[in-house]
Automatic annotation (TrEMBL):
Broadest EC class assigned to this enzyme: lyase
UniProt EC number: 4.2.1.19
Localization in the cell: Cytoplasm
Protein name: Imidazoleglycerol-phosphate dehydratase
Pfam families: IGPD
GO cellular component: cytoplasm
Family statement: Belongs to the imidazoleglycerol-phosphate dehydratase family.
UniProt pathway annotation: Amino-acid biosynthesis; L-histidine biosynthesis; L-histidine from 5-phospho-alpha-D-ribose 1-diphosphate: step 6/9
Organism, scientific name: Methylomusa anaerophila
Alphabetic keyword roster: Amino-acid biosynthesis, Cytoplasm, Histidine biosynthesis, Lyase
């Protein structure tokens, strides 16, 4: 059975439609209204081998904050829904991703207990129309609504584009590892018998 979910979120600030297939091939169609953010979500899908579609109609007359944060909410909810009871998944994933001079570590636990540790300083305030501080906002919203314990640490890096790209690629790779089904696992990967 293919693990997939579609989510819609409509508020005064944003209207978002998204579909996520965990067992995909890395195909994506993304239109968030922020070119660099589109690029990062496409990289996330490609390196996680997820199929992702997302469309956002946001209040860009204000800024990109609401759209990026709400994208994290919607993507997190889609992941949680697609995973279902989380039976048989490996649960943990870690990736170290280099992008030229940048090196990012992303480590996560699909624990049902949302928590974000984000240790990455962005040298530039913006990449194109994307505000660099929104990386942390996106990740917090995503981790909260997916039920992830998520650690992101920048080990080296001077170029903001490279840093953010390494983080999003790492997120995809770590999630790909954590969501894999292992036939040796009976039920969920927890001695408690549940993930939360």
């Amino acid at each position: 059975m293919k693990r997939m979910a579609s989510i819609e979120r409509n508020t005064i600030e944003t209207k978002i439609k998204a579909s996520l297939s965990i067992d995909g091939a890395g195909q994506s169609s993304v239109a968030t209204g922020i070119g660099f953010f589109d690029h990062m979500l496409i990289l996330f899908a490609r390196h996680g081998l997820f199929d992702l579609t997302m469309e956002i109609d946001g209040d860009f007359n204000v800024d990109g904050h609401h759209s990026v944060e709400d994208a994290g909410i919607v993507l997190g909810k889609a992941l949680a829904k697609a995973l279902g009871d989380r039976a048989g998944i490996k649960r943990y994933g870690t990736a170290f991703v280099p992008m030229d001079e940048a090196l990012a570590m992303v480590s996560l636990d699909i624990s049902g207990r949302p928590y974000l540790v984000f240790e990455a300083t962005m040298p530039s305030e913006r990449v194109g129309q994307f505000e660099s501080e929104l990386v942390e906002e996106f990740l917090r919203a995503f981790a909260t609504h997916a039920g992830l314990t998520l650690h992101v640490r920048l080990l080296s890096g001077k170029n903001t584009h490279h840093i953010i790209e390494a983080i999003f690629k790492g997120l995809g790779q770590a999630l790909d590892e954590a969501t894999r089904v292992d036939e040796r696992i009976a039920g969920v990967m927890s001695t408690k018998g549940k993930l939360d």
